[in-house]
């Protein structure tokens, strides 16, 4: 898959494609249905498939402090899109200049002059352009004169409700990992590199891997039973995602994972953490001794969980 960052990096060879536009946060089953149709139409027309995304996502640009947490980081999203067989991703910088483009200007600059789109797949609720004035009806109106066709992406439902990134976030916030997996089409996981931390957990007798989140906000918070993939093997563990209130954290979310019965140096290594069950919310403890007691109880609860259903 070829990544193009910004309109200014588009070249003549990038013109002519079947495209779709959106945030694609989580690349869930609804997104996967759109991407499958995109591949089909691209094959029919003999052109590449292209997904147009934004960085930051529009709501992060307008209200960074209240924007919803991402299900997937940009890197994870790109890997998932590549896994879906997409040929090209155009990542547009969502800035003031892009935000002020009218719907007609967006169509001309991005879809016509930039990509030379032959066919466009979008949701029938898709909005774009300054003040979100452009919609599906507008695309259908201008498409024929600009040389492209438009089709509404099919809605995918689970238990009578539309699959959406919002619904995935709700499932994660409620620690309903079975529902999240059903909506995503895969278990929810967080990947990252192990960094050097404060080494406080080691002093408390339970060493943890401090994994870089690279997120303003995490989609879930608390203490969880997890499994960790390392060198092709999965290890049972217990993890905390939160701001570490007992030890005066920096206010940003951190992921700390303790692997059960593991001994080894994993600093700098890349881990994949899958979430299975929530043990409790994150809380502030009156002392480090109280924190240690809670951590010991969390480890014991994780052991009991894995004894009840051994890790495959």
TrEMBL record:
SMART domains (alphabetical): Flavokinase (SM00904)
Uppermost EC category: transferase
Annotated ranges, domain Riboflavin kinase: 183-307
InterPro entries (alphabetical): FAD_synthase (IPR015864), Riboflavin_kinase (IPR023468), Riboflavin_kinase_bac (IPR002606), Riboflavin_kinase_bac/euk (IPR015865), Riboflavin_kinase_dom_sf (IPR023465), Rossmann-like_a/b/a_fold (IPR014729)
Catalytic activities: riboflavin + ATP = FMN + ADP + H(+); FMN + ATP + H(+) = FAD + diphosphate
GO molecular-function terms, A-Z: FMN adenylyltransferase activity; riboflavin kinase activity
Family classification: Belongs to the ribF family.
Function of the molecule: Catalyzes the phosphorylation of riboflavin to FMN followed by the adenylation of FMN to FAD.
Protein name: Riboflavin biosynthesis protein
Organism: Zestomonas insulae
Gene name for this UniProt entry: ribF
